[in-house]
Recover the amino acids of this structure.
């Protein structure tokens, strides 16, 4: 089995910066990412076949991404990038198993940096499984990196600044955005928006987004959320309404609008499959997006030699991801003897300073845009929660009423979470539902026991003897 | 939680929940305590085979038949995904037909009259996807499969309905004996006075035994299984090979055995096995097991490769064993009120409910309908 000093999983800003920094410190690194190219979510490259003449026209993120990837390319001899590598399991002794094409491979790493990122938070409402309902992140990815419009008449519903970015990108690309529904109250949203944008290095862009939206006369309706989506086989209409402070629909305020696409953007959920497989201790923090792996100030988890950086360690944007990646790399290199304690300290000073600035006011703001339970309390019984196995809210509620209160137990009896997505979609919803129905705080609802494969694995990927 | 009851059942697996159900149904005052939740033990993480073919004619086989009756009865009110669809033992060599003949003969006269050898053609009619090197099989039409988790929850629900109290997150840490009689159990949530304690702790039955000074020779190994995505119609009934494969790991330490088996759930997920080893009390799954199980599954069912079928889950639990592969059931010498209901080896789903029923009879009537002498703990004394 191949052995490396540091394996980094995830090729977004967190992973790229970790790899570049580690290489600068002299370590040999393997960077694994499942996509055809580096960049992660925010800096995703255009698909092969596109020729880019003027990067500037693809936006600030694209240019930023190119900068980071160039930085990494300067250390080619130290960094092996394996793109198209789906990590499906980690095993004792820091063994990492991944599918490369249709071949199964394994490597052993002395230190591991997890930079898996986050995924769109699923929020169910009647009609959310209709074709035409997509997540905000997926829509961003389509317009930004795939250059396709997800629809012609769109309604954006959710919370947080990414919605504004999405709206602006859609408008620029020629789509009609009928409205952006922001669940937070008016005061909260506009008051904190500049800070939140600033923290993510998006202040200038942010105002451009807002100007773009104003020019196109896209209303931003604060204190509103989508209630239901209707249509015959596909999205045709959306019903939306005012919501109270807990984001529960205020009845009597419903309105209907004709659209062909809904982008549901309620923030992100940290991906913690791999850190859970490693056995790292996790704790629950709503402002970070839910369960995250506990770590020290150098991003090292409770399992020695395993680090977690970027959105998988808490949803805080690309800039934090990048700095955290660097910090973890410095620490790992020190542990490997590539840096003396002194050198490591010196190198981390400026990174820590930048991180402090970025995360200074984060938790208060994180809370502002964090999910409220009202949305989950009002899910009708017939609405499907587990999309893989088609299990409804009613089925889950009756299991909870029978006294089942851990995600594993509910999965055992109802099958929710047993499908190919391994509960990625329904786990957060079910835990909100348990919390609401039992009155216990979400941190007391025991999450899944994770098992490999974290992504479906073709049985034929192992060579026959 | 009650502080006093007549019977405490320790362990919320298939054996414990079934025992609690039969006791409660008979009007007894029962408290079941489970240290984790009801998915903690082996009963929530097995292949779901309900097999009685391999039970020795006599009391062991009768426990199996009683279990099938119990499932039939329970299925009236609960969808446990139980199907008496038959089960297949696969033969890869001609010799196996001959070697198995006496085994089949004795069982045919002891209640399994439907046992039947199938040649390659007969087998292909039932299971068209099996590879050509499988020459035939032994079919028992009474065997079948069940969703083990649903089974546990069904017995638990019925037990509650009949007045039993079930408590999860309660671990037994000690047992008080006075003058040779069980007086109370100590748990992490307090003491419960009781006349009886039923030890249905699966792999941990020896720990409970030790609390009262008993040596219970139950060992366990880890067994690992893969679960595929939904691909209906690959296998019609649970099947396994009697041929094991040993893999010695590099350096000669450790090592594991692989034996192919397959079962398909109602939804179409394939349960594929199995790899066994002895890592101690560990329930993680290994790369080597993924590799070994995947390879064997494709060797027996090449269509899995053709269709690019994917694994979506793996799991591992303790597969318990006794020296003579028989369960340990009934009273123990010298401690009045201490009842064993453990040692169900690889057949808990095919015997657990039957065992629960007779344990209940033993407590309620003093005389079980199936004699338990052959299953007593004292058989290991020499
Ligand atoms: C769909 C989507 C779109 C987004 N778009 C924007 C945007 O336009 N602007 C913005 O500011 N923020 C956006 N975000 C937020 C974004 O997550 C962060 O800003 C930033 O990308 C975080 O960087 P990261 O390095 O932590 O993770 P990511 O950039 O998410 O990188 C993680 C990488 O790891 C890979 N990976 C994960 N698991 C495995 C595995 N098991 N095997 C192999 N590879 C794996 C992922 O495919 C991904 O490439 C988006 C988020 C999502 C989910
Ligand atoms: C991978 C695998 C596949 C298998 N496949 C099959 C199959 O296909 N068919 C079949 O028939 N059998 C199969 N078996 C065997 C079967 O699972 C067992 O025989 C059966 O589950 C045993 O049930 P049980 O109730 O005796 O024990 P368990 O289900 O293990 O229950 C014991 C319970 O006791 C609890 N406990 C332990 N100590 C304490 C304490 N101090 N206080 C409170 N509670 C305690 C445990 O938490 C546990 O929940 C398989 C086993 C494994 C591991």
């Amino acid at each position: 089995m191949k052995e490396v000093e540091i394996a980094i999983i995830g090729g977004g800003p967190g992973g790229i910066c970790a790899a570049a920094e580690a290489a600068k410190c002299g370590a040999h690194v393997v960077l694994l990412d499942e996509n055809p190219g580096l960049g992660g979510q925010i800096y995703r490259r255009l698909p092969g076949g596109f020729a880019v003449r003027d990067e500037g026209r693809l936006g600030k993120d694209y240019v930023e991404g190119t900068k980071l990837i160039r930085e990494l390319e300067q250390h080619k001899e130290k960094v092996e990038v394996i793109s198209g590598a789906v990590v499906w399991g980690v095993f004792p002794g820091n063994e990492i198993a991944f599918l490369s094409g249709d071949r199964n491979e394994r490597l052993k790493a002395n230190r591991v940096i997890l930079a898996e990122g986050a995924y769109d938070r699923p929020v169910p409402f009647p009609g959310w499984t209709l074709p035409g309902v997509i997540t905000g992140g997926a829509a961003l990815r389509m317009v930004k990196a795939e250059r396709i419009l997800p629809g012609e008449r769109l309604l954006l519903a959710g919370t947080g600044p990414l919605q504004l970015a999405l709206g602006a990108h859609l408008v620029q690309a020629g789509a009609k955005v009928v409205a952006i529904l922001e669940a937070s109250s008016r005061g909260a949203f506009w008051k904190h928006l500049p800070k939140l944008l600033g923290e993510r290095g998006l202040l200038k862009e942010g105002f451009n987004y807002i100007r773009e939206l104003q020019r196109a006369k896209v209303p931003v309706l604060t204190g509103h959320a989508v209630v239901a989506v209707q249509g015959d086989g596909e999205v045709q209409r959306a019903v939306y309404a005012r919501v109270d402070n807990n984001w529960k629909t205020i009845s009597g305020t419903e309105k209907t609008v004709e659209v062909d696409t809904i982008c549901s953007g309620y923030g992100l959920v940290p991906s913690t499959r791999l850190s859970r497989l490693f056995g790292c201790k996790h704790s629950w923090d709503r402002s970070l997006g839910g369960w995250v792996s506990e770590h020290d100030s150098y991003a090292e988890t409770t399992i020695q030699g395993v680090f977690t950086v970027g959105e998988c360690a808490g949803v805080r944007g690309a800039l934090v991801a990048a700095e955290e990646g660097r910090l973890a790399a410095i620490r790992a290199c020190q542990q490997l003897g590539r840096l003396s304690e002194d050198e490591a300290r010196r190198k981390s000073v400026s990174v820590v300073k930048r991180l402090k600035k970025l995360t200074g006011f984060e938790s208060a703001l994180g809370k502002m845009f964090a999910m409220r339970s009202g949305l989950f309390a009002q899910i009708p019984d017939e609405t499907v929660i587990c999309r893989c196995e088609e299990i409804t809210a009613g089925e889950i509620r009756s299991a909870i009423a029978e006294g089942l209160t851990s995600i594993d137990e509910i999965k055992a009896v109802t099958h929710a979470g047993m499908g190919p997505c391994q509960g990625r979609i329904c786990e957060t919803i079910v835990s909100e539902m348990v919390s609401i129905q039992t009155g216990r705080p979400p941190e007391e609802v025991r999450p899944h026991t994770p098992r490999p494969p974290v992504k479906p694995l073709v049985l034929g990927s192992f060579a026959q003897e | 939680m009650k502080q006093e009851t007549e019977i405490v059942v320790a362990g919320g697996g298939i054996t414990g929940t079934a025992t609690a159900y039969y006791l409660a149904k008979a009007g007894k005052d029962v408290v079941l305590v489970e240290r984790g939740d009801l998915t903690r033990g082996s009963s929530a993480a097995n292949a779901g085979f309900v097999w009685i073919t391999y039970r020795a004619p006599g009391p062991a086989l009768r426990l199996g038949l009683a279990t099938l009756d119990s499932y039939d009865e329970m299925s009236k009110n609960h969808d446990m995904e139980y199907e008496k669809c038959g089960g297949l033992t696969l033969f890869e060599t001609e010799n196996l037909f001959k070697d198995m003949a006496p085994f089949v003969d004795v069982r045919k006269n002891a209640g399994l009259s439907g046992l039947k050898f199938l040649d390659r053609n007969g087998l292909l009619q039932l299971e068209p996807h099996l590879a050509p090197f499988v020459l035939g099989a032994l079919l028992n039409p009474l065997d079948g499969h069940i969703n083990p988790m649903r089974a546990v929850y069904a017995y638990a629900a019925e037990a509650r309905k009949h007045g039993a109290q079930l408590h999860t997150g309660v671990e037994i840490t000690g047992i008080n004996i006075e003058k040779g009689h069980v007086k109370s159990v100590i748990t992490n949530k307090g003491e419960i006075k009781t006349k009886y304690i039923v030890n249905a702790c699966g792999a941990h039955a020896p720990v409970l035994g030790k609390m009262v000074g008993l040596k219970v020779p139950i060992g366990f190994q880890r067994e690992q299984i893969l679960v595929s995505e939904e691909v209906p119609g690959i296998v019609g009934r649970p099947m396994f090979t009697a041929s094991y494969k040993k893999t010695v790991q590099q350096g000669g330490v450790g090592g594991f055995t692989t034996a192919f088996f397959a079962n398909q759930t109602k939804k179409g997920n394939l349960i594929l096995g199995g790899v066994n080893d002895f890592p101690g009390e560990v329930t993680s799954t290994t790369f080597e097991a993924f590799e070994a199980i995947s390879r064997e599954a494709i060797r027996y069912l090449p269509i899995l490769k053709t269709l690019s079928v994917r694994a979506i889950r793996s799991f591992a639990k303790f597969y318990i064993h006794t020296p003579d592969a028989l369960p340990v059931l009934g009273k123990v010498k010298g401690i009045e009120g201490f009842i064993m209901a453990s040692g169900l080896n690889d057949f808990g789903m095919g015997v657990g409910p039957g065992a629960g029923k007779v344990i209940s009879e033993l407590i309620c009537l003093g005389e079980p309908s199936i004699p338990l002498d052959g299953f007593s703990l004292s058989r290991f004394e020499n």
User: Anything to note?
Assistant: The CA atoms of residues 212 and 342 of chain A lie 49 Å apart. Chain A touches chain B through 32 residues (CB under 8 Å).
